[in-house]
Amino acid sequence: MSITATGLETLEKTVQKTQEWLKEIETEMEWRDRHFALQSLRAVLHALRDRLPIREAIDLGDQLPILVRGLYYESWDTSIVPVKDKKVEDFLAHIPPYFPKDSDLDPERVTRAVFQILKRHVSEGEIGHVLSNFPRALRGLWG
C-alpha cells in the first residue's frame, strides 16, 4: 500500500502548509509563539467569513489548506451572516476574545498580517471576489 493510497501524503502536505502559514504569521507579527499565530489565523478567518455572503465564504474556504479550512468553518452559524459591521473598530472588536485577557495585542496589526498571508496564498481572483463582497468601510485592512 503506497502512502498516496492511504491518504497520508495529503495529510502531511496540509500539516506542512498550515505550519508554513503559521510561521508566516509569526514573521509578520515578529512573534515566536505558534499558539498566538494559530489564534490569530482563527480569529481573523472567523471575522472575515462572517462578513461574507455564504457563497463567497464557501468559495474562499475552498482555497484554504485542509487544516486551515477546518479552523475557518469551526462553529460557523450561517443564520447570522453576513454581519454588517459599519466601522473598522466593529470588525476589530471580534479579534481580542480569541486571546488571553492580559495579551498586549493590536487587533488591527493581527488582522493585516493574516490578510497578507491570505493575499499570498489565495488566488488573486478569489481575493478580488472577497474584496468586492467585503464591506467597503473595511477594505482598507487589506493594505
Concise summary:
The chain has 143 residues and is mainly α.
Overall spatial form: globular
Q: Would you tell me the structural class of the helices and strands? A: mainly alpha
Terminal CA distance reads: 47 Å
Uncertain regions spanning at least 5 consecutive residues: none
CATH architectural group: Orthogonal Bundle
Give the count of structural domains: 1
Oligomer: single chain
* CATH top level assignment: Mainly Alpha
Question: Beta fraction of the residues?
Answer: under 5%
Q: How many distinct helices? A: 8
Helical content (DSSP H or I, runs of 4+) = 55-70%
Gyration radius (Cα, Å) is 15 Å
What is the tally of beta strands? 0
Report the CATH topology name: Globin-like
Average per-residue pLDDT, rounded, comes to 94
Largest β-sheet summary: none
What is the name of the CATH superfamily? Uncharacterized conserved protein DUF2267
Encode the helix/strand succession as letters: HHHHHHHH
